[in-house]
Write a structure and sequence with these properties.
5 helices, four-stranded antiparallel beta sheet, globular, alpha+beta
Length: 251
């Protein structure tokens, strides 16, 4: 019934990137969902074991924690949490991609707002909507009409020289890549968290998606609007990211 939480961490040269941050968010999501705190030591052991013996220059590790076996219907059982860890190779996303805005909204006041849960049917529908229109990701507004997030990514855009991203109050997920980008880019750019109507994308000079495997990805088309991509600020942001990423596997 989708009563669980998950995390996906990038695997770089056989090692999970930013695993501590992912595990902290996993626990936050689980506790926010009300299913209890996962056994993070057990999860770490599972990550290590699934990576053993694999040659993974680039991949992902998926950690899923559910409320466990229970009766049919919505009530939970009392069998205890399940912990599942899976790793797989992955292809690096293209340098430039496209997005489509969707006619549905993210409910920033909903019971699951800000939690990374396995209740992903809504996101799956949005992604299929985007793919049918030649895009790789769907981007949505919240119930106020403000720009919120993608189905599996956070969004940043450049306006008047600033890099802007929606606030967490918009209902977007507190992305790991988003948090690191806000921290790492602030030394070189004017980076702000600010809410604005989703129509701001029609005025943005550059648009970027940020996420676990995308890191910082240039967007060359928003709906029917073509953008130069990667633009100069995006290129510099990507350079800064690569430099900081190389400093350590668990920032």
């Amino acid at each position: 019934m989708g009563d669980g939480v998950f995390e996906t961490a990038a695997v770089i040269d056989g090692r999970p990137f930013a695993l501590t941050r992912h595990l902290e968010r996993l626990a936050t999501s689980a506790e926010g969902l009300g299913i209890g705190r996962p056994d993070l030591d057990l999860v770490r052991e599972g990550v290590e074991r699934t990576l053993e013996g694999q040659d993974l220059p680039f991949g992902r590790v998926r950690i899923t924690v559910t409320s466990g076996a229970g009766p049919l219907g919505s009530p939970r059982g009392d069998a205890g949490l399940t912990h599942i860890v899976v790793t797989e190779p992955a292809e690096r996303p293209p340098e430039v991609s496209s997005i489509v805005t969707v006619p549905w909204t993210r409910n920033e006041h909903g019971a699951l707002a800000g939690l990374k849960t396995t209740s992903y049917a809504e996101n799956a529908k949005m992604v299929e909507y985007a793919r049918a229109r030649g895009a790789s990701e769907a981007v949505m507004a919240n119930t106020r009409g403000d720009l919120c997030e993608g189905t599996g990514s956070n969004i940043m855009y450049v306006l008047d020289g600033q890099i802007v991203t929606p606030t967490l109050e918009s209902g977007c997920l507190a992305g790991i890549t988003r948090a690191l980008a806000l921290e790492w880019l602030s030394d070189d750019f004017d980076v702000v968290e600010r809410d604005a109507p989703i129509e701001v994308l029609a005025d943005a000079d550059e648009v970027m998606l940020v996420g676990t495997t995308r890191t910082i990805q240039a967007i060359g088309r928003v709906d029917d609007r073509e953008l130069p991509a990667p633009g100069p600020i995006t290129l510099k942001a990507q350079e800064v990211w690569r430099s900081r990423e190389a400093e350590g596997i668990d920032p």
